[in-house]
Amino acid sequence: xxxxxxxxxxxxxxxxxxxxxxxxxxxxxxxxxxxxxxxxxxxxxxxxxxxxxxxxxxxxxxxxxxxxxxxxxxxxxxxxxxxxxxxxxxxxxxxxxxxxxxxxxxxxxxxxxxxxxxxxxxxxxxxxxxxxxxxxxxxxxxxxxxxxxxxxxxxxxxxxxxxxxxxxxxxxxxxxxxxxxxxxxxxxxxxxxxxxxxxxxxxxxxxxxxxxxxx
Amino acid sequence: xxxxxxxxxxxxxxxxxxxxxxxxxxxxxxxxxxxxxxxxxxxxxxxxxxxxxxxxxxxxxxxxxxxxxxxxxxxxxxxxxxxxxxxxxxxxxxxxxxxxxxxxxxxxxxxxxxxxxxxxxxxxxxxxxxxxxxxxxxxxxxxxxxxxxxxxxxxxxxxxxxxxxxxxxxxxxxxxxxxxxxxxxxxxxxxxxxxxxxxxxxxxxxxxxxxxxxx
DNA sequence: GTCTATATGCCGATAGAC
DNA sequence: GTCTATCGGCATATAGAC
Lengths: 215, 215
Known about the structure:
Two copies of one chain form a homodimer. By secondary structure, chain A is mostly helical. Chain A has a domain at 64-211. Chain A has ten helices and no strands. The first copy, chain A, is globular and about 60 Å long. Chains A and B meet through helix 1, helix 7, helix 8 and helix 10 of A and helix 1, helix 7, helix 8 and helix 10 of B. Chain A binds a DNA duplex through helix 3.
């Protein structure tokens, strides 16, 4: 048995290549040909190992999104049960952090995972029905748990307002995840400062937005 | 002369159909065949009138995005010159409103424009290079003006932080523009309340995020 | 300006040899 | 499990009749 995410098998070579090409070109824009060429395997291998291009997409989600959502869920459930025990309200920012921090950590530590993160950042808005459907299927229980936790953190907020704000926050998150901003920063004549962390900036922004009482 | 955005000419029938199909399926996912069929014109008409599929995309942006950005720009420039005259700082929320309100208004008043809005909401994150490049080309001066106006509204904020927060805000905006949330609302068991305006909710969220001093 | 017919090419998927 | 060869389909784009 091998618990590494990737090894040198044909299957994993295809998964690695697909992750990277999907991230760059989207699901529809990526051809099985391009994927197998990058992986250095025969074009027929995708159908042999994954049945279809869609099957390959599902395998990618199995490999990365399931473990990622497991981490997120455990942290959020921990926050919820601790709040229940102490009869307090969870803090909005900690709930959001529990969702987002594992994503950033995966991006930094797991080689190749940054392609996956970029891909799901945009799968969320991907016009291709197949990609969106697969992605939403994998995300549904996670989204419900996040919504519940934010409900607990902001118990007096009308549910529809909470829902919309969660949409806004997820839009900000998804857009941040897809691709890096280095080029855009330069285009605005801004020098990047490595002291500031995108994670903390995003959490501040989201938390303020979620909790806003701005008039 | 005819100053309506759309009439019954072949050209406009194609633009209307393309707008709607691009919105649903993205640029790559939309075929010229599907567009001409929906428009009720011959398949060769796209190349005759617009040279290519990409030319068609550019014509769509010409028709909608240029006038929309003109409205946005005029309002933002008005805010900037008024602030200069009165030696005050523009208000963040009013700058954001000047950018977003014309979008919402276009969506409500111009028939068919809601397809365009949904499309640009996602063109922003569209993995297809062609669509993203065309869109960004049309948006560049607009983005720079918006950044300048927010700089004026938040003069003490470090430029890199301002830049990132603008990215977050645009992510929230783009995600909100693409498609309607009715289905998702129902999936969360939330009854939609027409009294609350997505525009105001979004502006509150964005303004709080932009101005956040949350620790 | 609109049509048919077609050129040319890439797509996902598979059959069948090894 | 990996290969070659190929199928059938759909894509964009165009040539040329009307």
